[in-house]
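Consider the tokenized backbone below.
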């Protein structure tokens, strides 16, 4: 079925992998996200998210600094220049951190737990995670003004309509 985002899936992984004794546990996934959005130069109804999660963190770890380190690795590997990390408020995740490009476009959001909802999902570990929109990352890396050029599509190739 189509779901609004991958987070419930991540919680499932966290619970399943959390049965291992090893700590910390680190995992990532790349997958399609479907959202009911008004489509625009920055929003598609279907896009691709790269999620990275670390759980069972060492005591006293500076989570914000660790997120900066992980996010920075991805942004540097993608060749993004002059990115920034900013604090944001989220209805679901409380305090979040956003990674933006030089023009202020959001490339990723990061969150930290435990959160009040975690116990109901069987999650008891401290965790941190960040989700990058891969089309937005590519858009900024290639200096494209519009997401459609970097999104997968059956109707367009490199932004050109296939109904010729
Ligand atoms: P925005 O505020 O730009 O609508 P968001 O805060 O709702 O984004 P998140 O839930 O934080 O998005 O999703 C993580 C990342 O996925 C975003 O930082 C962005 O890169 C990407 N993303 C989110 N929604 C879309 C979309 N509709 N189309 C393309 N990429 C998206
Ligand atoms: Mg966000």
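A designed sequence for it:
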């Amino acid at each position: 079925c189509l779901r609004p985002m991958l987070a419930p899936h991540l919680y499932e992984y966290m619970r399943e992998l959390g049965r291992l004794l090893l700590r910390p546990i680190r995992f990532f996934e790349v997958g399609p996200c479907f959202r009911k959005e008004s489509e625009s130069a920055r929003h598609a109804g279907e896009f691709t998210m790269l999620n990275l999660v670390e759980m069972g963190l060492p005591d006293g770890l500076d989570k914000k600094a660790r997120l900066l380190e992980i996010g920075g690795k991805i942004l540097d590997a993608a060749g993004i220049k002059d990115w920034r990390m900013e604090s944001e408020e989220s209805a679901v995740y409380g305090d979040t951190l956003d990674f933006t490009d030089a023009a202020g476009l959001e490339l990723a959001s990061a969150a930290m737990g435990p959160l009040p909802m975690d116990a109901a999902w069987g999650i008891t570990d401290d965790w941190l995670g960040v989700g990058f929109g891969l089309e937005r990352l590519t858009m900024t890396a290639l200096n494209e003004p519009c997401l459609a050029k970097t999104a997968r599509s059956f109707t367009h190739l490199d932004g050109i309509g296939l109904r010729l």
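DSSP finds three helices and eight strands in the chain.
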